[in-house]
Amino acid sequence: MKCVLISSEGTDVLFYWADEQFEENLCNRFGHPEQDRQQMSAFGDCINTLFAPLIISCATLLEKLGDTYTCFTAENGHLCVLHLFGDCLYIAVNGDGSENEDDLRRKLYVLKRLSEVHFGLVTLDSQLFKKELRPSDSKQRVCVWKMFQSLLLTYSRLREEDQSFAVEAVERLIHPQLSEQCIEFLDRQVIQQVNNSPERGSEEVMHAFILVHTKLLAFFSSRNASAVRPADLLTLILIVQDMYPGLSEADELNPELEKKMSTSKNLKDSDKIPVPRHRGNTAERDIREQVVLLGKGKGCVIWQYRNLLIQFSDLRKD
Fold first, then answer.
1. Distance of alpha carbon 111 from its chain centroid, rounded?
2. DSSP code per residue over 170-206
3. Whole-model pTM?
4. Mind listing the pLDDT tens digit for each residue in 303-314?
């Protein structure tokens, strides 16, 4: 029983995601048949009807009293957390008790951060942001919403399965010799090859790093590069995990891979870099381009995200 949505001050739902239990409960409540759940417009109407009074009351309290509520528990036990970012109201609901107020609030901040990463400076203008998040073209809207819905599902999975997302920190694998070799590889081969590509023109890669699942093995920055915050790294790791989740699934499908783990047993999880919590409505640095697959080979894939290179490796491969 989970739901997340973004609405405007005019009660327009700009984005929503709900799990199957929430969808089924809502459709039964409003008397919609099973097939209506597959239609975005029909279910969207149910979402609008359900949350419109809440959105209006928040706007009224803010207008009349200059303040509004941020969390409450309904009579049916549903926990609802609200946060106002600019002119947009972010709402997260949990009805099965699996998430508390802090969990839901973190989810809203992650959704806000993902929208900043995807849309860039557009998020600073509320009108432009609303048009980008809810395009008039229905097919384009489905693509945008499915992308954010998938990212939210991946984030929820990583929060349960991965320590770095549970504590909001970037974990590093400490292996000096291997890290040094990886940095040299990134500097002398990967970055030079990408920078020499005629398609890039004068734009150069500033950062490159290698991940083993969600853990940082090696990180390289050019001399003139600006710093990459741990929060940015976590966001990029989340995006890569969403686009390439196959490595974790391979563990269950092929137990023989566990025997190959002996080559990397000396890697230790340590050196956590704390990630500062998001506070207020501070605008983040613009990161506008999408993740692009540059190459794929045995044991690794290489992504490009703006001026960052990400090599996502599986050390269990021979």
1. 7
2. EEEEE-HHHHHHHHHHIIIIIHHHHHT-GGGTT----
3. 0.73
4. 544 445 555 444
